[in-house]
Design goal:
With about 400 residues, the chain is an alpha/beta fold. The protein has 15 helices and 13 strands. The strands form two sheets. It has an eight-stranded mixed beta sheet, with helices on both faces. A hairpin with a 2-residue loop joins strand 5 and strand 6 (about 150-155). The radius of gyration is 21 Å and the shape is globular. The chain starts with a strand and ends in a 6-residue tail after the last helix. The mean pLDDT is about 95.
Length: about 400
């Protein structure tokens, strides 16, 4: 049996007036997943447990089969595992975004305009993070380059008892209203403020401004946590697998769970990514004997954060055509039965431009157990609400891998 979990990050949404009361999933033309839904199962799943922030860390742990309430020790340690940073038990990792601040005056009065620094490239970002590291690094603090705007700070013998806010939750708001709070947070605020002086006129950002691009002119630190310890995915489900994503967080979850990862050239984590390359990587993983592929695509989520409704719909359509279609064609021609689960990790409603904890729709198709045809089933919130409900993503994962009696 081959298993595919396809995750269009943040694809879930709310009814939108401009779409005649439809959601992006309902509006998007997705004939491939529609075909699977008509012969498969649709429903809803609550991927974010009550009391847990609706972050991609909790959501993807849940979808992959892990209870965030048990296994989540912070987002950034998972990203550190992806980058290859060896953390000690006393280290604390912090996500370090390169963001765009706009306005005049002191740092506190600047506006958080873009959590992704204008979709800065990794090559440009590396120069900026090196400048930050040169300024702030000491025997206890180090900065590491990740992908695009997503980077890391490691503090040895650090504290995680502080209130830090994700920048994508505060778009359009004053920086000063969302600076770090709590014990030991002062040094982080100082670094964030001083980083603006270092980065705003950095040659990389001057060149970006000349090209009409947004400058990545400040760091924003959040998502603290300690070294995680996940149980073995292979021991849990009895299968081997790999994860394909442009996002270090997803790769880190996979590595901590004992899964392999694949780096796809041109995979950016935005709508301008190498969709075809991700599909080829999934097919190659199956061809090389992997039982399971966790294929994560960030584009819909990034479009939601940017408030780009047309981009989100377009991205969903591209995923269906350029990712799901070739993988399905391969699996249909292969000798083994297969199961496909397409499910967002969480909702990212365009109206709020950040994550929500509301349930998301799923489509589950098993080649050897086709259900009676139902033309009303599709990959959407409205269709999912008529189907089965799972109270947790890890319960859906168990059901998908037939790891429980239901």
């Amino acid at each position: 049996m081959k298993y595919l979990i396809l995750v269009p990050d943040g694809a879930g949404d709310e009814k939108i007036k401009e779409l005649g009361g439809a959601t992006p999933l309902e509006k998007a033309h997705m004939p491939v997943i529609k075909k699977l839904a008509e012969r498969g199962e649709t429903g809803m799943v609550k991927t974010i447990p009550d009391g847990v922030a609706p972050g991609s860390d909790a959501a993807n742990l849940s979808v992959m089969g892990y209870d965030p309430a048990v296994f989540l020790t912070g987002r950034s340690p998972l990203e550190a595992a992806s980058i290859g940073i060896e953390m000690s038990d006393t280290d604390v990792a912090f996500r370090t975004n390169l963001i765009t601040l706009k306005g005049e005056g002191k740092y506190e009065d600047l506006i958080i305009s873009d959590h992704s620094g204008g979709d800065i490239s990794t090559e440009e970002a590396d120069q900026l993070i090196k400048a930050v590291n040169e300024e702030f690094a000491d025997e206890n603090i180090s900065f590491y380059t990740g992908v695009s705007y997503r980077h890391l700070m490691i503090v040895h013998n650090g504290s995680e008892e502080m209130e830090l806010t994700p920048p994508h939750d505060q778009l359009g708001k004053r920086a000063g209203d969302h600076l770090p709070k709590g014990r030991d947070s002062g040094f982080i605020s100082k670094m964030m403020k001083k980083s603006y002086d270092i980065l705003n006129d950095h040659p990389v950002n001057l060149a970006r401004k000349e090209k009409g691009l947004e400058p990545a002119n400040s760091i924003w630190i959040w998502g603290q946590g300690r070294k995680p310890s996940l149980s073995s995915f292979t021991q849990k489900y009895g299968i081997t697998g790999t994860a394909i994503s442009a996002v270090d967080l997803i790769k880190g979850i996979a590595i901590c769970a004992g899964l392999s990862t694949v780096d796809v050239s041109g995979a950016t984590g935005t709508i301008n990514t190498n969709f075809e390359g991700k599909a080829r990587a999934a097919i190659e993983a199956f061809r090389n004997g992997k039982d399971f592929v966790y294929l994560h695509i960030e584009g819909p989520d990034e479009c939601s954060h940017q408030g780009d409704m047309e981009g989100k719909i377009k991205c969903l359509e591209i995923i269906d055509k350029k990712v799901l279609m070739p993988i399905l064609e391969y699996l249909e021609e292969a000798p083994e039965d297969f199961s496909i689960l397409e499910v967002p990790d969480h909702r990212t409603p365009l109206a709020i431009r950040t994550h929500s904890a509301d349930p998301v729709p799923y489509v589950l198709y098993r080649s050897g157990e086709q259900k009676p045809f139902d033309g009303s089933r599709e990959f959407s919130e409205r269709s999912g609400e008529k189907g089965r409900f799972f109270g947790s993503g890890f319960a859906l994962a168990d059901y998908f891998f037939k790891n429980e009696k239901q």
